[in-house]
Every structure is written in C-alpha cells, then in structure tokens.
Write a structure and sequence with these properties.
about 280 residues; N-(1-d-carboxylethyl)-l-norvaline Dehydrogenase, domain 2; 2 domains; globular; 3-OHacyl-CoA_DH; membrane
Length: about 280
C-alpha cells in the first residue's frame, strides 16, 4: 500500500468523509458518483471537512494533501489499488456496484463494502473474487472517528486482510476485526438502543433532550442516542433496523412508529435540518 490510490464509490456523507481521510493522509482518491452536480457539491464538502479534520488533529496538519479526482463512470477506478464502496445501505445496490467493479479492477485489488450491517456473505457471491472482499464500517463522521469495524467474510483471504490493515494504518485508522453477521457489533448494539429511546419519547415518558441528558450524564454516552440518530440520518437508521429485523427476526429491531413518521415527513436529522432536534434554527 506504499503507492496506494483509492477508489471511493458514492459521494454522499460517508464517501466524502472517507475521501477526506485518505487525501489528508497523502493517498490519492478517485471519487465516483452518478452526476457532476453531486461531485461538485462533494468537492466543496471535502474542502470544508479537511480543514476541520486538520484543526481537530485527526489528519496531519502539515504536509501535502493528495489529489482528489472525480468521475461519473465506474471505469475510473480500474487502476486503483483498493476500492471502497460507500453507496446507499441497500444490499441489491451494493451487490450490483461491487459486482461491476470486481470485473474492472485487477486481481489482488481489495474490494471494501462500507456497510453498517449488511453481511459480507450476502455480497460475496456477486463479485468475481470473493477472497478479495471485506467489510469496513466507518463511523459517521468518518473524517473524525479514528476507529473502524472491519468485517472479515468467510472467504476473505489473509492477503486481503493484510492489504486492508495496511491501508487503514496509512489512513490513521485503527481497525477492530470481527466476524461476519447481520449488524456486526456496533449496529447490533447501537440501533436497538436508539429505537427504544425513540419509543420512550413516543410514549411520553421523557423528551428527546431528557433521554440524551440522562444517557450522557448517567451512563457516559458521548452525545446521547437521539442526537446520534440525527447524525446517522433517520432514513439510514430505519433502513438498517429493517435489515436487522428481516435477517434476525428480533422484534427489537422493528423500526418504531415515531421513527417512521419522522422519515415520512422528511425529518431525517442534521442533513435535512430537523429530526429529533431542530437544526434549522442553528443554521439560520
């Protein structure tokens, strides 16, 4: 990975955050998305996040920033040394994209799915070389959080794990390796807690602010579950909960009505300006 060149698929919240981490640590990136408008917006967000990351000391404050190229065609990643898929959390879409990319990159190129809970075993049958597929769950915001969950599939090779470990080290990230399962570790624990917090609010037991204050002050949660939900995106959270519910049959993963109502109303959290909290007042 000394001469790494990273392909990132998807210029959304996670893709741009991952790109910031890479270029901030001197790794050139090719960022791919479906439209030039999305890519132009992504470039602006990358510039802003890179400045923030440097101020926070999570990427080097000195030294050159690597190049960021953008493209609307998957073929642009053909010459990269690793590819991270960061498209929407939908198994069918991820499988399609990973399958297409696996036929473009050369043998020995790690294929990484950035997923919060879709089992790697579900995706591996769509790629040409399943031994080169691995999961990495970057936490949001990816450019600030320095620990990641690394998911080793049943067919992931030692060579792939070594390459991915080396890439993460170059990106200043510490990876904790876990075995493949729906939700892995973090989502399996965090998402039902958020879901139950929303149920508590819906039942009138406490406000969102009170739930978060108690979780921070009594149990040491850094932000509180509902502020965390707003950061994740309530639509993303609902999708992840449905995925876990379908794959485990555990009723605690069934998205609660309040969460679904907020998603239907377009109140998706920070990215929409309103979720469990109102961010429009802060931004205005």
């Amino acid at each position: 990975m000394e001469d790494a060149r990273l392909g990132v698929l998807g210029a959304g919240v996670m893709g741009t955050g991952i790109a910031v981490v890479a270029i901030g640590h001197g790794i050139p990136v090719v960022l791919v998305d479906v439209s030039e408008d999305r890519l132009a917006d992504a470039r602006r967000r990358v510039d802003t996040q890179l400045r923030h990351a440097r101020l926070m000391g999570v990427v080097p404050a000195e030294g050159p920033v690597a190049a960021l190229a953008t493209a609307t065609e998957l073929e642009a990643v053909a010459g990269t040394t690793a590819v991270i898929e960061a498209v929407t959390e939908d198994a069918e879409i991820k499988a399609k994209v990973l399958g297409e990319v696996s036929r473009l990159v050369k043998t020995g190129t790690p294929l990484v799915s950035n997923t919060s809970g879709i089992p790697i075993g579900e995706l591996e049958r769509f790629v040409d070389r399943s031994d080169e597929l691995v999961g990495i769950h970057f936490m949001n915001p990816a450019y600030l959080i320095t620990m990641v969950e690394v998911i080793r599939g049943d067919r992931t090779s030692d060579e792939t794990m070594t390459a991915v470990t080396g890439l993460l080290a170059r990106m200043g990230r510490r990876g904790i390796v876990v075995r493949d399962a729906p939700g892995f570790v973090t989502s399996r624990l965090l998402h039902p807690m958020i879901n139950e917090a929303a149920r508590i609010v819906a039942a009138g037991v406490a406000t969102a602010e009170s739930v978060d204050d108690l979780m921070r002050g009594c149990l040491g949660h850094p932000t509180g579950p509902l502020r965390t939900a707003d950061l994740i995106g309530l639509d993303n959270l609902a999708d992840a909960l449905r995925m876990l519910w379908e794959r485990t049959g555990n009723a605690s993963f069934q998205p609660c009505e309040l969460l679904l109502e907020k998603v239907a109303a377009g109140h998706l959290g920070r990215k929409s300006g309103k979720g469990f909290y109102d961010y429009e007042k802060v931004l205005s």
